[in-house]
Structure formats: C-alpha cells, structure tokens
C-alpha cells in the first residue's frame, strides 16, 4: 500500500532554494518520459486535464509541475496522483524559462530518460506520443541517445 501523506523537501538549483512538494512515497528514478510544465495564476483546470491525459499513456511516467507562485492549489494534483505527479513551488514568478530550467534539472536528477516540455494549457495526444517516441528511437539509432532532441 502506498503511503499517501504529504512530504516536502527543499532542493537547491543554481544557488536558489525551491520547495518541492510530493505526496506518497518518493518517486523512484524514471526510465521513461517525464512531462515538465510550468504554471502560474489559477490554471488548475488546465493542469488537471494535462495530468489526466498524460498519465493515460504508458510512455509517460511522471508529470512535474513547476509552480511559478501559482494561486491555484496545485499540490492537490500530487496528492491525487501520488508517485506520478511532483510539484516544485517557486516563491515568486521567475518566468517560464527559469521555471522550465528548474523542472528539467529536477527531472534529470530523478533519472528521466526523456523530458517533454509542455505548456500547462496543452495535453498530449495519442498520435503525438507515438510519433515523438518513434522519432526519438530513430534518431538515437543514427546519432546516439546523448545527441538527440526532438522539438515539436
């Protein structure tokens, strides 16, 4: 049985301290795809749709939400999907570029094999998931996995 109590940890990236909130057991390192999204304001409805759609695909292991001082209770999503959703709370809105940098660092530190950066008001479609993974595998065969990025 998964322990569902909420825990918090503070992570340090580039000299800045960020609060990471997750529910349940600490996620194990991932070997699949982690979606990184950045949010702000009250965009909980968008995030709920993104998370629900993303986690319906076996290729997507985790959704990492970077909260740029969002006013919505985004921590609820980590509680609803324990071990599959992580939230990093930034104390202030530092912009999407910094938010994505923080999210990418956290995903890599957690062992993500692939990172899919996605705006919080978008959701992955079946065709996109399949096509992106097929193109990644094809390019890895040509260039090696350390040299491949697919931008969609």
Give an overview of the whole structure.
By secondary structure, this protein is of the alpha/beta class. The chain has one domain (6-123): Spore Coat Polysaccharide Biosynthesis Protein SpsA, Chain A. The chain contains 4 helices and 6 strands, in the order βββαβαβαβα. A 6-stranded mixed beta sheet has the order 1-2-5-4-3-6, sandwiched between helices. The relative contact order is 0.21.
Can you tell me the overall shape? Answer: globular
Sketch the major β-sheet. 6 strands, mixed
Q: Write the H/E string, N to C.
A: EEEHEHEHEH
Average of the residue pLDDT scores: 80
The top-level CATH class is: Alpha Beta
CATH superfamily: Spore Coat Polysaccharide Biosynthesis Protein SpsA, Chain A
Count helical runs.
4
Order of strands in the sheet with the most strands? 1-2-5-4-3-6
Provide the helix percentage: 25-40%
What oligomeric state is this? single chain
Determine the strand fraction and express it as a percent band.
25-35%
* CATH T-level fold name: Spore Coat Polysaccharide Biosynthesis Protein SpsA, Chain A
* Low-confidence regions: 1-30
How many domain modules? 1
Computed Rg: 15 Å
**CATH architecture annotation name:** Alpha-Beta Complex
Secondary-structure-derived class: alpha/beta
């Amino acid at each position: 049985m998964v322990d569902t109590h909420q825990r918090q940890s503070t992570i340090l990236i580039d000299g800045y301290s960020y609060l990471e909130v997750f529910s349940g057991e600490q996620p194990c390192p991932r070997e699949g795809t982690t979606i990184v999204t950045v949010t702000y304001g009250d965009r909980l409805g968008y995030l709920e749709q993104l998370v629900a759609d993303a986690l319906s695909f076996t290729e997507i292991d985790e959704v990492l939400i970077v909260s740029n001082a969002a006013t919505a209770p985004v921590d609820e999503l980590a509680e609803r999907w324990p071990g599959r959703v992580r939230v990093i709370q930034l104390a202030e809105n530092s912009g999407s570029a910094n938010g994505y940098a923080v999210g990418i660092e956290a995903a890599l530190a957690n062992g993500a094999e692939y990172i899919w950066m996605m705006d919080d008001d978008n959701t992955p479609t079946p065709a996109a998931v399949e096509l992106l993974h097929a193109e990644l595998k094809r390019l890895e065969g040509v260039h090696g996995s350390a040299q491949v990025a697919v931008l969609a």
